[in-house]
Specification:
By secondary structure, the chain is of the alpha/beta class. It has helices at about 5-20, 40-50, 60-65, 85-95, 105-110, 140-150, 170-180, 195-200, 210-215, and strands spanning about 30-35, 55, 75-80, 95-100, 120-125, 155-160, 190, 205-210. The protein has an 8-stranded parallel sheet. Helix 4 (about 85-95) links the parallel strand 3 and strand 4 (about 95-100). The radius of gyration is 17 Å and the shape is globular. The protein binds pyridoxal-5'-phosphate.
Length: about 220
């Protein structure tokens, strides 16, 4: 991508405009810049423009990149599938985890998060559209996972997350409806990527995860 600054300013502006078009003012939308398979120089360039939140999908890649960026006040979001043998490192090296999809993962993160750190902010990833290729909890499992998060003082349950198949923007409404149906609706909905973040914001996203629209195509 030619100019990271104009791409960044463009996305930030579109997010703010989409948030303003909402019928009820619902606060600011947090942009998570998805930096998987992007070099540290690209992350640094965006950080210099003021971006703070970065999302990574692959643990080892993130652990390789984070030390090179340790001089910057970045907020790290883990957004990829979680194997249970990776929870200890995720709990140690991230501020947010968007992809908690089973009770066992919630329990392990809660046990392994250093209690002297701020609580790990977690979202429950929900498979709202029955997408076979993606992970995520069945909507009926959300109360049990939420209860497991509530049991741990080292976790702060923030909300729900989804990765619907491309074009299925009704999944965003389904996630918002699922949240409203909980006994205590959660403050955050992490939904919307490069191609559909405005549709997600229109129905209540508070966090959007944008990669290629910010950074250009990923290294393969
Ligand atoms: C890669 C990824 C994104 C960003 O996708 P883009 O289409 O590049 O914006 C967002 N969320 C998750 C979970 C991802 O894996």
């Amino acid at each position: 991508m030619g100019n990271p600054e104009s791409a960044y300013r463009g996305i930030v502006g579109r997010i703010a405009a989409a948030a303003e078009r909402r019928p009820e003012p619902a606060g600011e939308v947090r942009l998570v810049a998805v930096s998987k398979r992007q070099p540290v120089e690209a992350i640094r360039a965006l950080a210099e423009l003021g971006q703070r939140d970065f999302g990574e999908n692959y643990l080892q890649e993130a652990l390789d990149k984070q030390p090179e960026l340790a001089d910057l006040p970045l907020i790290w979001h883990f957004i990829g599938p979680i194997q249970s043998n990776k929870t200890r490192a995720i709990a140690a090296h991230f501020d947010w985890v968007h992809s908690v999809d089973r009770v066992k993962i919630a329990r392990r993160l809660g046990e392994q998060r250093d209690p002297s750190l701020p609580p790990l902010k977690v979202l429950i990833q929900v498979n709202v559209d029955g997408e076979e290729s993606k992970s995520g909890a069945d909507p009926t499992d959300v109360p049990a996972i939420a209860a497991a998060c509530a049991e741990s003082p080292a976790l702060e349950l923030r909300g729900l997350m989804c990765i619907p198949r491309p074009g299925n923007t009704t999944a965003f409404e389904q996630l918002a409806a699922l949240n409203r149906s909980l006994p205590e609706p959660l403050p955050d909905l992490s939904m919307g990527m490069s191609g559909d973040f405005e549709a997600a914001i229109a129905v209540g996203a508070t966090i959007v995860r944008v990669g290629t629209a910010l950074f250009g195509p990923r290294d393969s």
